[in-house]
């Protein structure tokens, strides 16, 4: 699989007082926002990262958004999902790393 047939993404949790969860699709970033968004994710706690098949990226985005919404709805102390659970939910939409 060529690198241009997949999208790198990450689910992360802010490390400041807010502690909310977010996601980022790295290859979808606009040039003017790229540095800011990457810095924001780099300063956070990584929850999950991987690659998605470009052909099913929009379907995967819906699932990633629902995962992030679920994480943000959880109690602060209990918030979290295992990497195995996230992998299960994304299933065949995940692409192998380069």
How would you characterize this protein structure?
The protein has 98 residues and is α+β, with helices and mostly antiparallel strands. It has one domain. 35% of the residues lie in helices and 24% in strands. The chain contains 3 helices and 4 strands. The radius of gyration is 13 Å and the shape is globular. The protein starts with 5 loop residues before the first strand and ends with a strand. The model has no long low-confidence stretch (mean pLDDT 89).
- Total strands: the figure is 4
Q: What average pLDDT do the residues reach?
A: 89
Poorly predicted runs are: none
Which strand order does the major sheet show? 2-1-3-4
N- and C-termini, Cα separation? 8 Å
Quick one: biggest sheet?
4 strands, antiparallel
Assign an overall shape.
Answer: globular
List keywords for this structure.
98 residues, four-stranded antiparallel β-sheet, 35% helix, alpha+beta, 4 strands, 24% strand
Write a concise synopsis of the structure shown.
The protein contains 3 helices and 4 strands; from the N terminus they run ββαβααβ. The chain has 98 residues and is α+β, with helices and mostly antiparallel strands.
Please specify the SSE layout and strand pairing.
Blueprint: E1 6-13, E2 21-25, H1 34-42, E3 45-53, H2 57-73, H3 83-90, E4 94-95
Antiparallel strand pairs: 1-2, 1-3, 3-4
